[in-house]
Amino acid sequence: MPDVPADPYASEAVATAMPAATVVPLRDGPDGLETVLLRRDKGLTFAGGLWVWPGGRIEAADGPTGGDDPLATLERAARAAGVRETFEESGLEVATEDLVWFAHFTPPIGPERRYATFFFATAVDDDVEVRPDGMEVHEYRWFTPAGALDACRNGEIGLSPPTWIVLEWLATHADTTSAFDSFATSEPQWCVTRFGTVEGGMVAMYHGDAGYDTDDPSTPGDRHRLWMLESGWRYERTGWPNPEEPT
pLDDT by residue (tens digit) across 75-95? Predict the structure, then answer.
């Protein structure tokens, strides 16, 4: 997994986006690793109708975001925001010290509303009660990661690109122990998105893809991308295990 850059906020795409946090609750279910997804109200301007993890932008009450070590300070504020947003949207009570930072996603410059988002994972009890807020969220479901991907392929639910990719990562793990052991031995993945156009759709490219620096998805070489085609979505990453194929 790629390391966090020495100065990630030197990237204009990251520096100009609103900082935010997302929390991925994980538990062990009868069929293995499970996560809960919340369906955002269709009437919401941002990601209306999509199935997401609890989260939102960092607010002033979550703590300072500057200082001598701005990334560490921002991470602390992101943890506070993640705890707050998780309780507000789902009723789940999680602790800042139990959040494991494993990724950071930023969309490309363009849309008016963009979020530079810390992704944290946390373990929850198998009988935990989820209580949607009844405003932004009215519905939730527990999925295995592969089950959530299949539900999206079948048109049952809608996902954003980061959610799809994180589910692909989680689908390589049989249980929470495997997932958290992986997080503990890897640096957080820093994913600043670049889009390219291909026949039949779009490609979201990330660091490590041969076409990333040129915005040209046809460039031969290594791959780290999400194919978002009319025929379906597919995550491709050189050296990464595909949960749908034998390893």
Answer: 999 999 999 999 999 999 999
